[in-house]
């Protein structure tokens, strides 16, 4: 049905089920569709030429806006908490307070850096952040078909928006739920706004933003894209959902995580740095077969 689903990077536990969901969504029409996606390592590349690409937080951490002392402290936090985040022997309940502790400490360090709002543009421009190959087609096609794209990120919203703005794809159909910086009247970072969004509470974030999903009541069909199991809850705020097709990027630690991804996502993309498969699905759903 969609030739790209035979790509070598594609794994599906139940191809028949995927076909059924796709057929049901095609029948309903693209005006019933909304896309909900994670950002870092989902819409952006995981690696390029063998080198890891930066996340929203990394863009800031690696920039000239941060002192070497602060970089050192952020690195220590990473070395302490990241092994906990990816430790498959610990439960989410166990990890949760430690993750919140990590992100809270990191945000406090950033606030001490007296970051100026107008410097973010330069930090992004000088960074090695890259959207995945095929991003122009992805963003432009959604915009041309008036399909809402919700980007849901535990990163930093101000940086995320700058990345897509600089790529020329920050269209009016794009909405972002993320952690936003709060600047004082002189443009200095003084805090982060609102509740912390992290990889384990995207469900709560989705449910807090009921207004957004209320507006999209007439779009009960969802294409969800993520790269972690925490991303699966991003659509929990969708009202009266009819169909959901979940595409998951499995970027690293493939062997140990593959089964859990196959059990949770409909389509798993293994070490795939492109948007080729999501684009093929979108073209199919919008009648460009």
TrEMBL record:
Annotated EC: 3.1.3.5
Major localisation: cytoplasm
SUPFAM superfamilies per UniProt: HAD-like (SSF56784)
InterPro entries attached to this UniProt entry: HAD-like_sf, HAD_sf, Pyrimidine_nucleotidase_eu
Catalytic reaction(s) noted: a ribonucleoside 5'-phosphate + H2O = a ribonucleoside + phosphate; N(7)-methyl-GMP + H2O = N(7)-methylguanosine + phosphate; CMP + H2O = cytidine + phosphate
Function according to Swiss-Prot or TrEMBL: Specifically hydrolyzes 7-methylguanosine monophosphate (m(7)GMP) to 7-methylguanosine and inorganic phosphate. The specific activity for m(7)GMP may protect cells against undesired salvage of m(7)GMP and its incorporation into nucleic acids. Also has weak activity for CMP. UMP and purine nucleotides are poor substrates.
Name assigned to this protein: 5'-nucleotidase
Source species: Amphiprion ocellaris
